[in-house]
């Protein structure tokens, strides 16, 4: 056994291959489905109905609050939250899901050996409700091109995408475009506070739906999963 394989076993990392029964069925339908996934945590979460959340690393305080609220709405509707692991919107989405008692999928833009628990998530972390997944070689470092590739996997695992404060270029905008290309519903948040959302406006021109409140988001998510009772609060 190689040193890397031994390290993965020590970290309780497992792998599933495209075509295996345990590979996420929705992701397998994507033309960019990774040939292999390395994961830590309950593999079953990868196959549960999920909603992807993507947004800026430099999101405003309103954007971060909205991302957390979106995650809470998704959890209340029985959906798993799927996002990357960057600071900003990604972290806020995972935290919102975990704090609400829901499930979350962390999709890495680097090898799974590089994963480290963030302080922001440590108090709410639950090994039974969070799975970390990577499509890259276990020791691969973060790269910008890998982040773009990773976005395809977030989209592939999700029944719909929520975009927060997208700029006119970059990963968030690209994730929205990929969602539209794959026939996913893409929801662009209209925060109404002058945030940097030019990319969101461009996405709506291409078919994304504008969402301005928690009640609106809950309504559109009803068709994605079994409804659950939730308070109808503003996103911001």
UniProtKB/TrEMBL annotation:
Residues 16-218 form the Smf/DprA SLOG domain. Pfam families: DNA_processg_A (PF02481). Signal peptide: none annotated. Belongs to the DprA/Smf family. This is DNA-processing protein DprA. It comes from Tenggerimyces flavus.
